[in-house]
Amino acid sequence: MAKKYLLDTNICVFCMRGMFEMNRKIAVAGIGNCYLSEITVAELYYGAENSDNPKKTMKQTEDFISLFRVIPFSKSLHTFGREMAYLKSIGRKIENFDMAIGAIALQHKMVIVTDNIDHIGRIRDIQIENWKTDEPNINER
């Protein structure tokens, strides 16, 4: 069974801007093995609405999102609460959206692809790859 990758928002932005060979790396991993979370979609919509040219950026954003299956947050709510409470208890809490994306990756046994290693890496048992600096590790887990 192929690995499933959950692309964090920063990776999506790199891809849409043509940075760090992200389009090629997604192709190497297999676009069908790459997913977005509802949280990432919300962040991408916010970025589009907040851009210098919202109409143009929204079209680009919607075209990008349409390439991927979007994973809902609802099945990861308990994982979110458990992991957020744990991080708070050890004084290492992270932003809610970072935890939500991480919870989705944990719940669905996905590798999260992010450049936000400092925050996402605080989540217990999370599998992370940083395609900004590394190639996709397409070998079985």
What brief labels describe this structure?
141 residues, 49% helix, alpha/beta, Rossmann fold, 11% strand
General description of the model:
The protein is α/β, with parallel strands linked by helices and 141 residues long. It has one domain (5-129): Rossmann fold (3-Layer(aba) Sandwich), CATH 3.40.50. It contains seven helices and five strands; from the N terminus they run E-H-H-E-H-H-E-H-H-E-H-E. It has helices spanning 9-16, 22-29, 38-49, 54-65, 77-89, 96-107, 117-120; strands at residues 5-7, 34-37, 69-71, 111-113, 127-129. The chain has a five-stranded parallel beta sheet. The longest helix has 13 residues, at 77-89. The radius of gyration is 15 Å and the shape is globular. The relative contact order is 0.21. The mean pLDDT is 95.
